[in-house]
Amino acid sequence: MPEIKLNLHMHTPYSDGSGSHAFIAHQALQAELDAIIVTDHNVLVRGLEGYYREGQRSLLLLIGEEVHDQARDPQKNHLLVFGVEQEVAPLAADPQGLINRIRQSGGLSFIAHPIDPALPAFHEDDISWVTWDVQGFTGLELWNGFSELKTVIRSRLDGLFYAYFPQFIPRGPLPGTLRIWDELLTTRPQPCVAVGGSDAHALNMRLGPLRRQVLPYSFHFKAINNHLLLDEPLSGDFIRDKQAIYNALRKGHLFIGYDLPAPTDGFRFTASGRHGTASMGDEIPLGDGITFQIRLPMETECRLIRNGVVLKTWHRRQICTFITNQPGIYRVECTLSYLGRRRGWIYSNPIYVRG
């Protein structure tokens, strides 16, 4: 299956970001991304989707939306919306009604930054998702780059350090968000697709005489990306390729990769049995047993997780194999050492082994 690199969840001056769509596309092309999805707050920007090209490289820029109830204080329940051609922000006060409308329109919805703590040092509120009785959403944003920044800053001095050295921020999805995802996977009947989001704003900050852009787009595009596995390569046809990307997101045919320490391209997680072979996001019958194979881009630590519990850990391995006769929801996490600590590297979407 062809693999492409997609970065999503970013903002422009249409809401609270600093860079235009054209500038963001330029930065993404420089980072050798294949596609991005821009998601401004409560506005569906029209007329700017399409292919952007520089030299021999091309980038597909798609436009979604981050919807939340602006009348609520603080503004909880942010939802990423993809593939809907009409404005749905007026439904933000009713999360279930919003999700229903997105589904009826053939779109996708992902709960944005499920846990997004307050940042008192910079007067930022907690804007976590709170309405957990909703049904029918496509998935959630497992790893959010900006939310993670809020968890490592304790003072303005911390903020200054990370503004100049953002590579020290990413450590992995928040443990609470991982627990929420595993609970959703094991308690609700439909799949729950995990994506990684930059939540890029590229804000220009000032602290006394110092001026600095915090987490520029160029940093985000080298960090938390989604690696999608498509049925066929991108063709250059906008409509066809847009649908291919949204189909892969809908099916969970992807893994989240932190590409700054080392490229995650080429990771694969498959399951084989008497009834065929499955990849991330797929279901497979248990039959007489299932053989999992994990292929890593380099030797590192790898964990196979079943129903939220670590089943097997490999150290310094590049190819990992495991045989099971138990149904369940299986996913993979990989870590590696970078800048003096163990950091999350790869998070697969699950394979659903049905009994």
TrEMBL record:
Family matches, as InterPro entries: PHP_dom, PHP_domain, Pol/His_phosphatase_N, Pol/histidinol_Pase-like
Pfam families registered for this protein in UniProt: PHP
Record-linked SUPFAM superfamilies: PHP domain-like (SSF89550)
Source species, domain of life: Bacteria
Listed GO MF terms: 5'-3' DNA exonuclease activity; 5'-3' RNA exonuclease activity
Annotated Polymerase/histidinol phosphatase N-terminal domain residues: 6-71
NCBIfam families xrefs: CehA_McbA_metalo
Full protein name: Polymerase/histidinol phosphatase N-terminal domain-containing protein
Organism placement in taxonomy: Bacteria, Bacillati, Chloroflexota, Anaerolineae, Anaerolineales
